[in-house]
Amino acid sequence: MVRSPKITWNGYKINRVKSFKYLGIHVDDRLNWLEHINKQGEKAIKMQQNLKRIAGGNWGISQIHIWTLYKTVIERMLAHGSSAWCLNPTFKMKRKLSSIQRPFLLHISGAHRTTPTAALQTILGIPPLQFELQFEARFTSIYRLRIPIPPFITDTQPHDLEMKATGWSTHPSEHLKPNQISFEDGEAYIARKDIINIFTDGLKTEHGVGAAFCVLTNDIWAYQWSAKLSDNNTVFQAELTALHEAVIYASRLPNHNTSNIHVDNRASIMASSNSKSTNETARKIFKILLSNPRIKVSWVKAHAGNIGNERADQLTKDATQHGQPYSHTKLPKPYIKGLLRKRMPEEWQTLWKNGDTGRKIYNIMPSVSLRPTNWIREDVIFFSQHGPFPADLKRFHLSDSDYCSCGGIGTALHYATECIYTVSWHMRKPAPNFEQEWLKRVANNLVSRQKIREIIKFISENRDLFRPP
Questions:
Q1: Which of 67, 185, 379, 419 is the most exposed place for a label (fewest CB within 10 A)?
Q2: pTM of the model
Q3: Is the pLDDT of residue 17 over 90?
Q4: Which residue in 214, 234, 75, 83 sits closest to 144, CA to CA?
Q5: Is the CB of residue 352 less than 8 Å from the CB of residue 368?
């Protein structure tokens, strides 16, 4: 074996380590990130133990609150730095992440410990942890780090996305004049002949996104502008685009002209008057207003019969269908986030469809959803057929016999249709080739599910009664 080299720094020996922690991420000498996942897993186990102290099987906070705690606390903790280590997870990483997630799924659902992880994920509406972390990694990479992601995920490039601005757009001592921004209805200015009135509007319909403004001077419509934005732009972006084009137009008018821009969207006015706005377009508007104090911006009530606002609204509606394309407004953050979020269930669905575990639940729930079902613990136990059933326990070598004490094979279906001890809640037994259809109907029938719940509760409370002789 070759001895590792000795490294010194100013006379001090630098010891070789297998891993080190930097900014909350454990980097190991193999760069396979398993050390980081193991450390995060240890932290997650401690959190899960704390969770057990505030909620048990039939006491403590409700299932939906535990679900919320997992999504908002546990997943957020595990997702730290995911863009560095979970962009393309390996098989080992996926398996380890699944083992970290499993105890939480069991605790939230109250399911039997042999229940497949894939089934619990579908029932609870919680995607496999690898997909959640991949989503975070992809979003952080393209939006914050400005690193392109593979084209099979999206063709959108980082330069197509709207950047989040930080800091001050100008020196903190520079601010707008007190009379430049008004949130009171500016309709009174319209009657004045010495003021150029400009009306802006932005709109999003099923036809697209449009922005427009029109200019009223001495009761004459002197100018109008409209454009069609990308269908993926937001109404807020359309409003800001219209206001931006309006202030550019007003800034080019002769200096002796006073302009009043009427906007029916308070959010765009507030963003444009804030020198620390995170929106780049709003910052551009602020700088133009700062250098042109004769331009005023006031709010006007929408759809209140104001002739200028109604005209701008009509121009915007026309622009959504026939306007000139406007490519200066970049795609918003919600667009790329929604695009990546939409892809996650698709990948999850493929995994669920092609999986080899949880097939009993798959026959009832073939499609995944990000929303949890309204099943409680007893529902999960019965329909997954993993629970205090002798046939299931013997399959996992947890019992020596698969017979019920009544003499029949102790399956979930047996207790729901045949067992003499649960006759009070019996349902008609289906033919063997209709069992899956029967389970689907029972799962979708609240009265039948109530019977199932009573059966499972009775079995759980009287286990000695159901033990095989």
A1: 185
A2: 0.86
A3: no
A4: 83
A5: yes
